[in-house]
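User: I'm curious whether this sequence folds into something compact or stays loose and floppy. Could you predict its structure so I can see for myself?
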Amino acid sequence: MDKSAIHQFLSRQTLGVLGSISPEGTAQAALVGVAVTPELEIIFDTVSSSRKFRNLTTNARCSFVVGWSGEVTVQFEGMAFQPRDAELARYQKIYFATWPDGPARLSWTGITYFVVRPKWIRYSDFDQNPPLIEEFHFEGVR
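Assistant: Here's the prediction. I'll summarize afterward.
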């Protein structure tokens, strides 16, 4: 198992459960549409009136669970940021390749994008015996 195998798995997924922490310290979760970069960054859109927006602009630490068909999943912890300008356009191109209806949401009030860079990933495949469980740590996440 290597980074490219995790990318292949994540690229086949379109939904993930995002975990974030409210400014009051409450754990919150939301199902979001996701896309992934070759660097294993997760991209999703939301609106500025959402709880996740408030949470991530206050505390960028977050987590994901992706994949639940069978018993293969990725657990993911990382740091979220909002890309801007040319960087935003690059991430939108990746996101729109997974979500072709994404450009239609550009007219929504408060639409914004977050990118989550991984700090830790655990790939678990309990569909095989013995199970395959591998962890990856990423340094230098801003």
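Summary: Residues 85-98 form the longest helix (14 residues). The first strand starts at residue 15 and ends at 21.
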